[in-house]
Amino acid sequence: MESRHIHVNSDSFFGGVGLRPTHYPHLLSQGAGRVQWFEVISENYMDSFGRPREILKKIRQDHPIALHGVSMSLGSPEGLNLTHLQRLKQLIHEVDPFIVSDHLCWSKWGAHYSHDLLPVEYTRESLQGLIGNIQQAQEFLGRQILIENVSAYVQSTRAEFTEWDFLVQVARKSGCKILLDVNNVYVNAVNFGFDPMEYLRSIPPELVGQIHLAGFTDMGDYLFDTHSKAVHDNVWKLFTKTSSRLQQVPVLIEWDDDIPDFHFLEQELHKAEIIWNRTHNLQGVYEESNLL
Ligand SMILES: [Fe+2]
């Protein structure tokens, strides 16, 4: 696919949204507006050679693309599925993404697949397995990948690390970077009763390669990471504190269910841009907002 190169000033805001079929008509007729790049779910395009692939190709001509996977199952103790990796490698070859990412989780055990992203146990044993799997994936794909922290609803009693220490160890020892989902940090902080700022302060800025912002659903006695709502005020507050520590990190509004119209996503992205510009003392046009 032919594409533009990415030209971004060192601290400029670089904002994207997920590319979703419901927005294809808008994008084809009106363009992407203030959205600078798109993230796609890798698996949705691996076996799709029809209209979605054509539209991806068209979007890619003007916008950088991040490939975000859900099935690498990097936490699986039995190793990686090389057939899956080969299909991903082919998609990478065609799309030339600026980011390739997956999750700190497992979704496959033997012949069993889960549709959920199941968190790994934060033990030395699983740390070694993850490091080996990530290194193998990076060697196979010939590039660095990003690993995202996931939301969780149960905790292992065997944990030997906090989630944040484990995540940092994984990144340092495997050579990957972190896709820091600020919403997932908040969801887990509420569900398990830790301080989200302790988590965020523990992540070295140089390890962060991308940010996710999303919405959760309050289920009463726990938060459920549904990606079906606007970013919560408390997550915006955490992003504000995190943003000031980071340099030139792509920021994504993630929305997968009950997807609003494209203009609403642009507005959410604009809130992120306002925060970014404010916390980086950037000159430029931004509007004050009493939401922030
Ligand atoms: Fe995410």
List descriptors.
two-stranded antiparallel sheet, about 290 residues, alpha/beta, 8-stranded parallel beta barrel, binds fe (ii) ion, TIM Barrel, disordered C terminus, disordered N terminus, single chain
Task: Report on the architecture of this protein.
By secondary structure, the protein is α/β, with parallel strands linked by helices. It has a single domain (15-279), classed as Alpha-Beta Barrel (TIM Barrel). Helices cover 39% and strands 18% of the residues. It has ten helices and twelve strands. The chain has helices spanning 24-30, 42-46, 51-60, 82-95, 124-141, 163-174, 182-192, 196-202, 233-243, 262-279; strands at 15-18, 37-41, 65-68, 99-103, 105-109, 112-119, 146-148, 177-181, 208-214, 217-218, 223-224, 251-254. The strands form three sheets. Strands 1-2-3-4-7-8-9-12 form an eight-stranded parallel β-barrel, surrounded by four helices. A two-stranded antiparallel ribbon has the order 5-6. Strand 3, helix 4 (82-95) and strand 4 (99-103) form a beta-alpha-beta unit. Helix 5 (124-141) runs parallel beside helix 6 (163-174) and helix 9 crosses helix 10 (262-279). The radius of gyration is 18 Å and the shape is globular. The protein starts with 14 loop residues before the first strand and ends in a 13-residue tail after the last helix. The protein binds fe (ii) ion. The site of fe (ii) ion has 5 residues, from strand 9.
